[in-house]
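1st attempt posting a full record on here, be nice pls
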Amino acid sequence: MGRFARSKILFGEDFEKIENAKILLLGVGGVGGFCLDALHRTGVRDITIVDFDSFEITNQNRQIGSENIEETKVFVIQERYNGIKAINEKVTPKWVEDFDFSRFDLVIDAIDDMSAKVALANRCHSKLISSMGGAKKLDPTLIEIGSIWKTYGDGLAKKFRSELKKSGFSEDFTVVFSPESPKCRELGSFVGVTGSFGLALASLAIKKLIN
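the predicted structure (as tokens):
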């Protein structure tokens, strides 16, 4: 029995699509880290991660690798997951404009910066899946997957829709969101929700790859 034996049982001939996929993951924090873990364990061999941050002690309630305080996130993650390609840069609208997305089958947005999220949608919506707001929430069973235009009850998604309209964007792409009401005012977080956002992104990615 090999490392991916159980994946191959589940996916059958479609496993080859997963194994040969090229994925760009933007952000490896509380959401992106769990997405990466799931994709890597499932058998995706070509994953490029982009983040500019270093781990802080406040990350330890939800982020994979966060025991490495003050170390650069992408390099810590790269050491933990064999074969991962790391880019230590901040995703900004200018970065999005200059980056070559053509080699990737999927682009996964797990960042918080709104201007960069809007730029991503305008640049590569046809291969984009995006995470909305996982902070301030407690119930992972309320997480949903759907069109950005059909999101509801999610503050980040509402802001995203508004900014997309201002930019003239009229296309569509799929997002992970939650209509759960915020449980606090500040950016409190629970790994049961942020991690589940990441796992939902990974599941969505796999479904897109095999379909």
